[in-house]
């Protein structure tokens, strides 16, 4: 169904947005899909024969350190070549506008591709490696991160294991470092959890963009917010478990939808933009 900013559901959402005092946005891998970053699930989600649950775990890192580092090296190098898309940029513009109006706009991302930060969004935790021995955390933008990983990690080839001593090491104590991300079976850091809970408790509009909604704890946030009777809007190219509890479901690519959904209501709204989009509102 073709639609634009005068589509009733989009207009209703935009009206709510214009009145909101505290907007929380949860983004997942889908927001970066139009930048060319593969999502975890679906097409392009597998790396070699593995999926995220096989490799993004402390036990996989302990057992197959070289393999897990190859996986992260591949993704790390890939995202360096990608640029933020119109969805990331629409969020930056909305954040700036809200701040100017003395209102609150916060992005909670599950992504580690850095594209929100590169687009200009603030309030993002961007830390890259952590020492497995002394715990030192370092932002590391080296390419490759170590010589042994140069030209490694290609999805279609299997290579010899890299000895631990040649994998990325701590600049403080020389021990092995790991990606500083939350793996399966690990809890989010307490300070991050505290901030998330504050944002969830205070938001008066929740926008969920490009996440499959199956990995907890993030998968539970839409229903927690909906239980407070706060409107939840979902943007996704397909339905997810969150769709049934969402007030609005906007079906389509976030790079096309977010600029329309988040555009200012007065003057410069792109009101004649036409999109291939299906919308529905749930009561
Ligand atoms: C578009 C689009 C476009 C495409 N426009 N949209 C059994 C039952 C319930 C829970 C568990 C269980 N067993 C274990 C658990 C807990 C586990 C979990 O939830 N597992 C599930 C698989 C069931 N969770 C955890 O372990 C978490 N920790 C925890 O719970 O601690 C307590 C605990 C301690 C000890 C034991 C057990 C529990 C931690 C989870 C950490 C997840 N980390 C990862 C990897 C991060 C590092 C890395 O990047 O490598 O985070 S997993 C991976 O999934 C990544 C993502 O952030 C996360 C979510 O994925 P996301 O972003 O939603 O991407 P996709 O690919 O799934 O979806 C893309 C979406 O975009 C799709 O919907 C598309 O349609 C859409 N899309 N193009 C708009 N253009
Ligand atoms: Zn160290």
TrEMBL record:
Binding sites annotated in the UniProt record for substrate = 72, 75
Q: Which residues bind NAD(+)?
A: 28-47, 110-113, 210-212, 236-238, 254
Is Transferase given among the entry's keywords?
Answer: yes
Instruction: List residues traversing the bilayer.
Output: none
Kindly state which reaction or reactions the protein catalyses: N(6)-succinyl-L-lysyl-[protein] + NAD(+) + H2O = 2''-O-succinyl-ADP-D-ribose + nicotinamide + L-lysyl-[protein]; N(6)-glutaryl-L-lysyl-[protein] + NAD(+) + H2O = 2''-O-glutaryl-ADP-D-ribose + nicotinamide + L-lysyl-[protein]; N(6)-malonyl-L-lysyl-[protein] + NAD(+) + H2O = 2''-O-malonyl-ADP-D-ribose + nicotinamide + L-lysyl-[protein]
Q: Where is the active site?
A: 128
User: What EC number(s) does its UniProt record assign?
Assistant: 2.3.1.-
Which cellular compartments is it found in? Mitochondrion
Q: Report any Pfam family annotated for this entry.
A: SIR2
What Gene3D superfamilies does this protein's entry cite? SIR2/SIRT2 'Small Domain (3.30.1600.10), TPP-binding domain (3.40.50.1220)
Q: Which InterPro entries match?
A: DHS-like_NAD/FAD-binding_dom, NAD-dep_sirtuin_deacylases, Sirtuin, Sirtuin_cat_small_dom_sf, Sirtuin_class_III, Ssirtuin_cat_dom
Provide the primary localization: mitochondrion
PROSITE patterns this protein is in? SIRTUIN
Keywords (A to Z) from UniProt: Metal-binding, Mitochondrion, NAD, Transferase, Zinc
Start and end residues of each Deacetylase sirtuin-type domain: 3-280
Q: Which family does it belong to?
A: Belongs to the sirtuin family. Class III subfamily.
Q: What does this protein do?
A: NAD-dependent lysine demalonylase, desuccinylase and deglutarylase that specifically removes malonyl, succinyl and glutaryl groups on target proteins. Has weak NAD-dependent protein deacetylase activity; however this activity may not be physiologically relevant in vivo.
Q: Relay the domain remarks.
A: In contrast to class I sirtuins, class III sirtuins have only weak deacetylase activity. Difference in substrate specificity is probably due to a larger hydrophobic pocket with 2 residues (Tyr-72 and Arg-75) that bind to malonylated and succinylated substrates and define the specificity.
Task: Give the protein's recorded name.
Answer: NAD-dependent protein deacylase
């Amino acid at each position: 169904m073709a639609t634009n900013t005068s589509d009733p559901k989009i207009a209703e959402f935009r009206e709510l947005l214009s009145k909101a005092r505290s907007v929380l946005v949860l983004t997942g891998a889908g927001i970066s899909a139009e930048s060319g970053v593969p999502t975890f699930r679906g097409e392009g989600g597998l790396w070699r024969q593995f999926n995220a649950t096989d490799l993004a775990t402390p036990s996989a890192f302990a057992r197959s350190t070289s393999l897990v580092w190859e996986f992260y090296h591949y993704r790390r190098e890939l995202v360096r070549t990608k640029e933020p898309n119109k969805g990331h940029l629409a969020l930056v513009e909305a954040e700036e506008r809200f701040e100017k109006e003395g209102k609150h706009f916060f992005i909670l991302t599950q992504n580690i591709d850095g594209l929100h930060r590169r687009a200009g969004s603030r309030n993002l935790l961007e830390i890259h490696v952590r020492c497995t021995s002394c715990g030192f955390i370092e932002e590391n933008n080296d390419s490759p991160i170590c010589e042994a990983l140069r030209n490694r990690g290609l999805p279609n080839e299997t290579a010899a294991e890299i000895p631990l001593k040649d994998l990325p090491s701590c600049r403080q104590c020389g021990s092995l470092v790991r990606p500083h991300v939350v793996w399966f079976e690990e809890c989010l850091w307490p300070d991050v959890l505290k901030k998330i809970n504050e944002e969830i408790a205070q938001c008066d509009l929740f926008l969920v963009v490009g996440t499959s909604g199956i990995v907890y704890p993030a998968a539970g946030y839409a229903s927690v917010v909906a239980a407070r009777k706060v409107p939840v809007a979902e943007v996704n190219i397909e339905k997810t478990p969150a769709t049934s509890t969402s007030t609005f479901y906007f079906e389509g690519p976030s790079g096309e939808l977010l600029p329309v959904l988040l555009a200012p209501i007065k003057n410069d709204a792109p009101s004649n933009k036409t999109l291939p989009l299906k919308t529905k509102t749930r009561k």
